[in-house]
Design goal:
By secondary structure, this protein is an all-beta fold. Helices cover 0% and strands 47% of the residues. It is built from no helices and 10 strands.
C-alpha cells in the first residue's frame, strides 16, 4: 500500500521559513519523480516542485529561488524547504508521485496535506 504522509506545516510570519516533510512507503521511492503541490482555499491544486529520480529539481516560477526540494533515499523522505514566505504561499501542501517533471498523480492527493499559513 502506497502511503504519503506530510508534516511540518505551521503558522509563520511573512519572510519566515519552514521545512515540510513527506514520509513515503509502499513504492520504489528512489526511482520515483516526487512532487510537492499546494492548494489554497477555494483554488485548484497548484504544482510547486518536482525532484527527478536523478535529483534534478524543477520549480514553479513562484517557487524558484525561495523553495528547495530534496530527498533522503535512506529514509524514503522528501522535503520542501520554504524560505521568504509570502501570504500568497498559504495553503495545504501535499506530496505526490509523478511520471515526469511537473506531472503529479492526483490519486496521491487523498490526504489533507500539511497546512502552511503565512500571516502577520
Amino acid at each position: 500500500e502506497v502511503q504519503l504522509v506530510e508534516s511540518g506545516g505551521d503558522l509563520v510570519q511573512p519572510g519566515g521559513s519552514l521545512t515540510l516533510s513527506c514520509a513515503t512507503s509502499g513504492f520504489a521511492f528512489s526511482a520515483a519523480y516526487m512532487n510537492w503541490v499546494r492548494q489554497a482555499p477555494g483554488k485548484e491544486v497548484e504544482w510547486v516542485s518536482t525532484l527527478s529520480p536523478r535529483d534534478i529539481p524543477y520549480y514553479a516560477d513562484f517557487a524558484q529561488g525561495r523553495f528547495t526540494i530534496s530527498r533522503d533515499i535512506a529514509k524514503d523522505m522528501v522535503y520542501l524547504q520554504l524560505n521568504d514566505l509570502k501570504t500568497e504561499d498559504t495553503g495545504a501542501y501535499s506530496c505526490a508521485r509523478g511520471n515526469y517533471p511537473r506531472h503529479f498523480w492526483r490519486d496521491d492527493l487523498d490526504g489533507q496535506g500539511t497546512q502552511v499559513t503565512v500571516s502577520s
